[in-house]
Amino acid sequence: MRSFKIQLAQYRAQVTQTIVDLLEQNSLAPTTYSESILAQFSKPTILVIEDNVDEWFLIRWMLSKQFQEAEPVWLSSADQAIAYLNSYGLSEKSLPVMILLDLYLPTAEAGLALLESIKANPLFDAVPVITISRSNDGEDRTSAFDRASNDYVVKPANYKDWQQHFSLLINYWEKSVL
């Protein structure tokens, strides 16, 4: 476990430095960071909507291990996600192959409203949305599935469980990419 914590800290430092370098090189505003990253890669994207930066680093780490051929794009709020998704109608960007949506953004109501908005848009209704949350509450699960979430994953407490949960997402990946 100690080795993982050291690797995660090194990874965080590397990602932070990359962000700083990109911001300095391109004079980017932080709100356009995800869009600039997306423009630089022709890889399929996995959209991650997560308001906790520590959880984002862990999710990014897991995605880099499980989906090396994908480029994760991080948005930290429902407002950012709506603006980002609305930009698809104005551009030639490829749709994300999967969306990982934190339920509590910071409230369940905000996450559920965003989920409902995504699934109501005909452009995105076929994109798998996997709701992720620390909550194991049955009502949260039911609410997510009632709004057409494709799956509900309780955020694991340890590295091994994170690996196991993310390996299960390969089914959505294969259906979207193939």
TrEMBL record:
Give the record's keywords alphabetically. Phosphoprotein
Coiled-coil positions are none
What Gene3D superfamilies does UniProt report for this protein, alphabetically? 3.40.50.2300
Where's the Response regulatory domain? 45-170
| Keyword Electron transport found | no
Positions carrying 4-aspartylphosphate: D102
Q: Is the keyword Signal in the record?
A: no
Which one Pfam family would you cite for this protein?
Response_reg
The record's PANTHER family line, in alphabetical order, gives:
RESPONSE REGULATOR RCP1, RESPONSE REGULATOR RCP1-RELATED
How is this protein named in the record? Response regulator
Record organism: Spirosoma liriopis
Per the UniProt record, the lineage of the source organism begins with: Bacteria, Pseudomonadati, Bacteroidota, Cytophagia, Cytophagales
